[in-house]
Amino acid sequence: MVRVTAATYARFRPLFRNLVKREVRQRYKGSALGLVWTLMNPLVIVVTYSLVFHYVFPVQSIDDYPLFFFTGLTVWTFFMGGVQMAASSIVANASLVKKVAFPREIIPAAAITANAVTAAAMFLIALPLCLLLTPGSYVPLVAFPVFLVLLTALTLGLGLLLAAVNVYLRDTEHILAALSMPWFFLTPIFYTLDQLPAGFRGHEHLVDVLYYGNPATPFVSSIRDIVFEGRWPDAGDWVYCAIVGPAALVVGAWAFRRLEREMAIEL
Hints:
Layout: H1 6-11, H2 13-28, H3 35-56, H4 65-92, H5 94-99, H6 106-133, H7 144-168, H8 172-186, H9 204-212, H10 216-229, H11 235-260, H12 263-266
Helix pairs in contact: 2-6, 3-4, 4-6, 4-7, 4-8, 4-10, 7-10, 7-11, 10-11
């Protein structure tokens, strides 16, 4: 196990860059359109849901619904896409882990960074459209980098934890893939909590459990408030994200370092 210091990370920075480049190149290998294909799936999802919730189950309370949905989906893609890629990254790079001594957390971090390329392309589409089509203020955009850093901390922390556990319990990445769909529906990406069934009204504690019990929800809500609504996130979201993001990173990094010792042997 390599002793981790700032100098160590600087020494292995080229390895990190090469891992990111390899992940991106493998994803677009043999593709004539490259990044465009990565955007096609989210766009198809947005179009499909927009048609369903416009003609089949009309959503009257949300203006610019496709853009509302696309903004939430962008945050979800960054978070869940990064966590899923990180979870399988150590096992996928088993030969490298067994042959070379380096800080193993570089691998899931590189996987998350490669996934961020897709999310960044989606943000580059969503942000100008929000600025042009929605009436909110531009001022809250100064908080966007803060929440993006906090979301990155949450994604990296959970990714490190699951990447380490997956080495010893290979079902972890498959369990995560199975949970990602119900998790998606429990996160207010294509709806708001105000649109929950009437049975939830008068039971605010249940709404709070759905909101704060899902770590993705306050981040989706906060970034959507900033980018789509053009307003400042609620104070509760500021506090939640400021605590949960760094806490997830600390716990994930600690667990990864504890489980790293026998990784090469287990692989």
